[in-house]
Structure formats: C-alpha cells, structure tokens
Amino acid sequence: MKRTLSYYLQLSFTLLICAFMLVPVLMSMTAGLTNNYFQGLSSGLTLRWVEEVMALYSDTLWLTLKLALATLLVNLIAGVPAAYFLACSTSRWARVFEELILLPVAIPGLAIALALIIVYGGVQDLRTSWLFILIGHVLYTLPFMVRAVLAVLHSIDLKLLEEGAASLGAGFLRRFFDVIIPNCKGGIISGALMTLTLSVAEFNLTWMLHTPMTKTLPVGLADSYASMRLEISSAYTLIFLVLLLPLMIGTQWVGANTQKKQLSPSKPRHASLGKNDEH
Amino acid sequence: MNINEHGASIRFENCQKTFADGTLALHSLDLSVHAGETLVLLGPSGCGKTTMLRLIAGLEFPDKGGRILFKDEDVTRQPIEKRNVGMVFQSYALFPNMTVAENVGYGLKVQKLKADVIKHQVAEMLDMMELGALAPRKIDQLSGGQRQRVALARAIITSPRVLLLDEPLSALDAILRDRLRAYINTLLRQLGITTIYVTHDQEEAMALGDRIVVMDHGRVSQIGTPREIYFSPQNDFVADFIGQINTFEGPVSNRRMTLPGGILHCAHLGDGHGKLYYRPKDIEITARAGSEFGGVVHQTQFIGDRNRIWLKGVNHDLVIVDSDGRSDFFIGQEVGLRLRPEQMIRLDRQGGAAA
Ligand SMILES: Nc1ncnc2c1ncn2[C@@H]1O[C@H](COP(=O)(O)OP(=O)(O)OP(=O)(O)O)[C@@H](O)[C@H]1O
Ligand SMILES: [Mg+2]
Fold it and tell me: How many domains, in total, are found in chain A?
C-alpha cells in the first residue's frame, strides 16, 4: 500500500506531540543521574543524587507507600460492599447516592481538605497524625473504587448468580466471597490500581493536610523543587516516576483488557451435535 | 450416589402472591404434590408459573395466611438456602468464575464435605451426565445443551428434597430439546425426586408430567394426568391450550346442531345453544356427495406426517382437519366431513379441580 502525504504529515505531527510531552520528562530523569546537569552528560552518570535523596527524603517515600496501601485497604473493605449494596438496591435513593458518590471528584482537593480541617482540625492528635491524610485520601479515592466495582456489578446478572448459589445452600457470606467477589474481580483490580495511583500522586489535598512530620512524596517533591539543587529534585522525580509508572501502565492494561472482554460476545457456543458431545 | 429414593411431598395451603407493585401474580391456591411425582406447570406467558416455582423454592414468599409444607415441615418462612431444593434456572445461572467440575461440586463444598469425597461424587455425576471430558472447562466454553446438563448435574448432586426446573429447555433448538427431554425424563424416573417442571410447551408437559397443572392468569385452570387434560379438558381455555381444537357452536334442537356446513348430531345436548369440540385429527374427510355435513377447502399445508387442511363454510370459524400425509386436496374442493360422537372432546365441567 502506498502511503500518502497526509499519512506522513499525521505521523510526524503525532511524533512531535509525543516528543513535546516526553522530552522534558526524559530530560529531568537524566538530570537526576548526571554528575553536573549544567555540564551535561559529559560530566558522567552517577547514583549519588539518588542516594542523597534517599537519605534526605526516604521517610516521605515510606509514608506515601503506607498511605497508599492503607487507603487501598479501607477502599477494599468499605468500597466493595458499598458497591454491592448499591447494585442490589432497587430504591431510587440508591441511584441518587450513586450520583452523589461521584461528587468529591468534582470538588477540588483543596476544598475537601479545608472542610476536613474545619471539622477535625481542632483534634490535635488526629491533626498531626498520618491518619488525617488517610481520611482525605479515602474521601478522594473511594468514589473511583465504588464506581469501578459498580460498573462490573451492573454488567453481570448479580441477582441470578446469587439465587443460583443460594439454591445450593450457600448463605450470604459464602455467596459474597464465592460468587460475587470473583465475578467482579476485574472491577476490584482496576479500582485498586486507580486507588494506588491516585493516592501516590495526590498533591493538592495532601499539601493542605500535611504537617512537617507527615510529608508525602509529592509534598516533599514540591519542597525540594523550592530549596534543593536541580540534580536532587530531578533524582527525586525519578524515584516518583519509578513508583508511579508501573501503576499507571497497570491501570491502562487492565482497562484495555476488560474492554476487550466486554466487546467479545459471551453467548453460548453454537450447540454442536457431535456424537460424544450431546446426549 | 446418595440420591433419595423419594423426595418430599409438597403442600400449598391458601397460597397467594401479590408483588410489591400490587400485581396479583397468583390467586389463592391449595395444591398437593405427591412425593416422587413430576408435576408440570403449564400455561401461557405471564400466567404465574415462575412465581409459583419461586414460592416453592423460597425465592418469593406467599402473602399473609399462606403456608407451604414439605412433607410435614412448614417451610413458609425459610429462605431458599435452608430448604434443600435443587433448582435449574431458565438461564442456568452457572458460575462463570468456576469450571464445570467446580460448578457441579459447589453444593457439596457448601455442605463442607471433604475435598476427596467431593471429587469422587463430582466425577461420578459428570460421568452419568456424560460431561466427564468437559470437567476442566469454563462455562463460556460450553454449548447450550452442555450448559443445560451442567445446571441439572449441579442441582441434583446434593440430593435435594425437591427439584425445580424453570423452562430448562426453552433456549435450545428443536433436535437438542427432544433429545434432552428424553434424557431428563429417564433421569427423573430413575431418581424419584419430587419435581416441579415449568414449561409453556404442551408437548413437553405431556411427555414429562405425571400430572399437569394448567394455569391461566394466576389461577389453576385444571389439574390432571396428561390424558385427562388432553381428552377431558374442563374448560375452553384448557381445551384450546392443549393442542388445536375446533369449537362448533350453534343452536341445538332435537339433538341436532345446525351449522353453515349442515347438521351435526349431538345426542348429549339439550335444546338451546350448544358447543361441541373436536381435535383436528379426529375429523374424517369424506366425499361431498351423500354427506350431510361438509365445506370447502380454504387452504392446505403439507407437514410431512400429515396434511393440515383449513375448511370454510363449515363453521363460523375455519375448521382445521389433519388428514393422512398422502391424501391430496386442492383449494376450492368441496368435501364432506364425518365426526364420530365417540371422538368428541367433552368439557368435563362437573369434575372440580382434583387437588
Ligand atoms: N418481581 C415482580 N414484581 C411485579 N410483578 C411481577 C414480578 N415478577 C413477576 N411479576 C408479574 O407476575 C405475573 C406472573 O409472572 P411469572 O413470571 O410467574 O409468569 P410466567 O408464567 O413464568 O411467564 P413466562 O412463561 O413468560 O416465564 C406477570 O404478570 C408478571 O408481570
Ligand atoms: Mg417464567
């Protein structure tokens, strides 16, 4: 097939856009690994800056990981059952609530943080604890979790599967763990990845809620941009990306996979009348 | 396999079902199902068959005052997981997250049997259902007929007191349906479980049922053996629903009914207005000359084993006659009809619903 001029124009335009987005990222990543950014790569590669970042900021890294995992845990324990009960309920209020639960996404993180500070800011122990940030992160990410699970629950015949399991003697908890959870695994995984990604990368809300003792990676990053030399900030960014990229790729991959599954028909295969097949 | 020799008998006492939106799906009903019997619920769409099945299952509960008993045990308020019933859903409700073997073994797993016991029983059941080779497959890798058998296997492996089947064959094509029907028939006789079988296909009902319950708009129209239902329907609805029927309706005097096509003898009817019922295959076509009753061929259809003929000028409606497939008629042909009194279908209005 002969490629037309317009094909090459589109290709170069796409590449240009990619370069526009990727070059600064790559630049800053290499900056974190060069001896002296102003002399360029010729000054040699080093892990010195990375080590220095770990010495200065490792607690922000651990806190970020702890927060992300704790947020995930809360979301799994609260979000999955919440989605299930919303999906089961036929009441109009359940539908209203489904819409409401998306609201925090529309409210800026700063506003959520401000509201939290106004309500709980006076409780000293909570205000200075990492749990305060956890509350913020859960408020922010829970809707994504619930939505992801709900989408799957709405696409399967939940009631029928449950009745099937109940007819075989399974009580509620058995049905929940044997049939419901496995059948909305896709939604749970994509919700979990989304939760981790959002929690790790969250800045607005966390910046408002943090104290000097509870700094997360993105907050520390902002600090370092303001006060450290460029190579250290860049090395710090590198660590951030290494943490975040797998999560983002995972989210994309799971999303693409579930879409593929929904597109492929799952109708019964045509009844074959082969001898050893049917009786 | 530890399948019960006999399942439990079932008794409905004053059971009525009104749904939350006010739909009265089932009018007050008393009914007994014998232990080990196969009872077929038959009726047109929306008549309440599924509702009745779900009441027995414990997926719906009767209105206040109604009671459901299994043998002597009152199960009215028990949910389905406590009732020890097996159920095959219209759309099978197999678990997509499990393999065929896991689906079949799920009921045993819930009963907390040992893994090797489950494995053994599942293997035996899969063999019996000729599903052995499919054990490791996922449900979406099965054909419709295979799914149907998996659903059946899953429902009977726990030796339920009662087996409930909701139109299990309706999603299948005709050949497969016939084959599986024969298969289910043999299986049910072998197992001796009390079975409630829902269908809207009268042929299926006849083939499988020890007794048939014909339902209409949430009421029981008639209960009886297939023969009773077919040969002595109690009302127009049953007569019409079970196979085709011709209704001759007209003035009767002196034991003769006068119709557009001539005179019909009806020794059992008094003077006034009367109705006679004949099935299409019980009417015999003769030569027009010399017969006192007849009409004109309006349309014919060759169905292989028989010729179906619609006649006009006999009755107010078209009359349907089934004759031998080898006979040949042309449209507009004048024919005579012979109706034998002994082949008349009598509506048995006196016999109340046998419970
Ligand atoms: N959950 C419900 N709420 C309200 N009405 C219902 C409900 N389920 C069934 N009905 C109504 O009750 C009546 C009987 O329904 P049912 O499902 O028992 O019919 P059916 O005989 O099984 O029909 P089909 O052959 O189409 O399956 C119908 O009019 C139906 O609309
Ligand atoms: Mg139904």
Answer: 1
Write out the residue range of the structural domain in which residue B262 sits.
244-343
The pLDDT averaged over each successive group of 10 residues in chain B (355 residues) is 63 93 92 94 93 94 93 92 92 93 95 94 90 92 90 92 90 80 86 91 90 94 93 87 86 88 84 86 87 89 87 89 85 90 74 37
Contact A201, A247 (CB under 8 A): no
Put simply, the answer to whether A165 touches B95 (Cβ < 8 Å) is yes
Nearest CA to ligand 1 atom 11: B25
* pTM of the complete model: 0.80
Question: Do the chains contact at B91 and A160, CB–CB below 8 Å?
Answer: yes
Give the residues across from B276 on adjacent strands.
Answer: B248
- CA-proximal residue: ligand 1, atom 22 (nearest): B50
Q: Are residues B129 and B200 in the same domain?
A: yes
Within chain A, strands assigned E span none
Residues in chain B with CB shorter than 8 Å from the CB of A272 are 143
Does residue B39 sit within a domain? yes
Assess if residue A34 is contained within a domain: no
Task: Give the DSSP per-residue string, B195-231.
Answer: EEEEES-HHHHHHH-SEEEEEETTEEEEEE-HHHHHH
Closest CB from B96, B110, B180 relative to A169: B110
Q: Is B44 in the pocket of ligand 1 (CB under 6 A)?
A: no
